[in-house]
Write the structure tokens for this entry.
Amino acid sequence: MKKGLVIKSAGNRYKVSDEKGEITECLIKGKFRVQGLRTTNPVTVGDNVLFELSDDGSTGIITGIEERKNYIIRRASKLSSESQIIAANIDQLILLASITEPETHPEFIDRVLVTAGAYSVPVKIIFNKTDIYSEGHKKKRDYLIGVYSNIGYDSYSLSLFNDADIDLISDLVKDRVTLLAGNSGVGKSSLINKIEPSCKIKVENISEYHKMGKHTTTFAEMHALSIGGYIIDTPGIKGFGIIDMEKEEIYHFFPEIFRASDRCRYYNCLHINEPGCEVKKQLEEGLIKEFRYRSYLKIFEDNNSKYR
Ligand SMILES: Nc1nc2c(ncn2[C@@H]2O[C@H](COP(=O)(O)OP(=O)(O)OP(=O)(O)O)[C@@H](O)[C@H]2O)c(=O)[nH]1
Ligand SMILES: [Mg+2]
Ligand SMILES: [Zn+2]
């Protein structure tokens, strides 16, 4: 019996790295269900597992999984109630975003923030590709960074094509397990290649992305960093949805709405159209931003209709 860390999952095959960093291709024995979750993948990247080597030592079978510190999941598909665990045992999530090529919609950012908040994973937001920003793009970036910083999220702006900016990223990821998220084409794989040039992850030219991005990365994969730590590259997360969240809970993960909710007239105010709602008041005063409130409503409505 050996102990290892799952560094890649593709279908029912897993790559497991042992203490020495030796990698074994593993399958799972039987069916095991973890923590009563209905998931399409019982084992995920970042899991600490027990495995047995085959007689010739070339492959392995995963026989057990250690309790997770945390994990992030998404719905397996729009129609399915099953979920897919993206990664486990994460120290932080870095949300890579861009104002252009491709644009990251604030609602996408907010969904990621809510999901990470719900699973107690700290988030940092990085706007990438500043080298191609117009003055208008820069204004928009400054606005968003202002809003998100005020709420309490560490937010940065850089270009992966600028070497000095790579040092900043190294500082952020060193000695930590980082889940890298962001819509397709923002530069997640490029970022890992910059920090760990030996990785050579496939990166597609942006012109090939047909505007919306085409998901060059299809499975989550964990990369060991020589500076210490790991980065998990994920497919440009679509349907990064919030699963199993009560609708009364959603605003808890919009920190500025949560703070305001203290002063709503009703303790169970959902900030939709209740009288004496402090959130609505702060919205009118511009203290809470329209786009954030819209994201809240969207997630609230989705949660009401599709999710349950
Ligand atoms: N101009 C500019 N282009 C960048 C920058 N960073 C990455 N790119 C380009 O953006 C394109 C997409 O990069 P990827 O690293 O494949 O993006 P990804 O986020 O991994 O995409 P998926 O795997 O589809 O989720 C590539 O052509 C990169 O060269 C940057 O700072 N500036
Ligand atoms: Mg990629
Ligand atoms: Zn309210």
